[in-house]
């Protein structure tokens, strides 16, 4: 099964091109509908894990789709993971639309309090970005992963941008492969807040094993 979806969004400029992102909402709906139709026709692929990564302004596309979403527009458990990585959307209103996601087993939201790109976004939009500041209430179905202690920037889903963080690398490797990530205090998590916000523990991948493993996966 090959379903490839390309979405190109202009980089941050003097004016954030939010309307450019919103033009991709129908593309996202079409992709999910195509996936759903294929899985219905080919139940043998149900064992294949699927992840949707919404990075930075990609979260705007998902947010706009969910705001007009009706329950069970898509099959329940259509995909395994949704990862909102460095999401450039308003934090104050996020719980309402994320809570409507019923077609994914898990929803991960990553947060970096030191994300300079989202700081720039905040200054232009006069809003707190979800990817840098959590504003309650939190979404009932979301798992929040805080990476603020790891010395990373904005594109930390990319292995070489993870500041050699072992547990951040392992998180993305598992989550991107559609797996449920075990987040355990004292193992890969330093603290847990509100039973939903998991602060990734700072530990160097001293031998680069995780990053090299991810690179091999990308090449295969």
Brief sketch in words of this structure:
The protein has 220 residues and is α/β, with parallel strands linked by helices. The chain has helices at residues 18-22, 25-41, 58-67, 94-98, 116-125, 166-176, 209-219; strands at 51-55, 79-85, 104-111, 142-146, 189-193, 197-200.
Description:
It is a single chain. This protein is an alpha/beta fold. It has one domain. 31% of the residues lie in helices and 15% in strands. It is built from 7 helices and 6 strands. It has a 6-stranded mixed β-sheet, with helices on both faces. The protein is globular. The two termini are 16 Å apart. The N terminus is likely disordered.
Tell the overall outline.
Answer: globular
What is the strand tally?
6
Average pLDDT rating = 90
Reported for the largest beta sheet, the result is: 6 strands, mixed
- Low-confidence spans: 1-14
**Oligomeric state of the chains?**
single chain
End-to-end distance: 16 Å
Strand order of the largest sheet: 1-2-3-4-6-5
Q: Compute the gyration radius: what is it?
A: 17 Å
Proportion of helical residues: 25-40%
Which keywords apply here?
220 residues, alpha/beta, 6 strands, 15% strand
């Amino acid at each position: 099964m090959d379903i490839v979806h390309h979405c190109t969004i202009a980089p941050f400029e003097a004016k954030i091109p939010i309307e450019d992102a919103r033009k991709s909402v129908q593309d996202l709906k079409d992709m999910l509908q195509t996936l759903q139709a294929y899985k219905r026709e080919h139940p043998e692929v149900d064992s294949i894990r699927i992840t949707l990564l919404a990075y930075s302004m990609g979260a705007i596309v998902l947010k706009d789709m969910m705001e007009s979403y009706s329950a069970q527009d898509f099959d329940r458990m259509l995909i395994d993971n949704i990862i909102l990585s460095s999401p450039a959307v308003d934090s104050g209103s996020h719980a309402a639309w994320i809570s409507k996601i019923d077609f994914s087993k898990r929803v991960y939201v990553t947060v970096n309090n030191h994300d300079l790109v989202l700081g720039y976004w905040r200054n232009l939009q006069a809003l707190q970005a979800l990817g840098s500041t959590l504003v309650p209430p939190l979404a009932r179905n979301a798992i929040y992963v805080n990476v603020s202690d790891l010395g990373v920037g904005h594109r930390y889903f990319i292995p070489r941008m993870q500041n050699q963080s072992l547990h951040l690398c392992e998180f993305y490797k598992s989550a991107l492969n559609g797996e449920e990530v075990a987040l355990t205090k004292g193992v890969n998590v330093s603290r847990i807040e509100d039973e939903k916000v998991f602060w990734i523990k700072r530990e160097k991948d001293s031998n680069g094993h995780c990053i090299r493993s991810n690179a091999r996966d990308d090449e295969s």
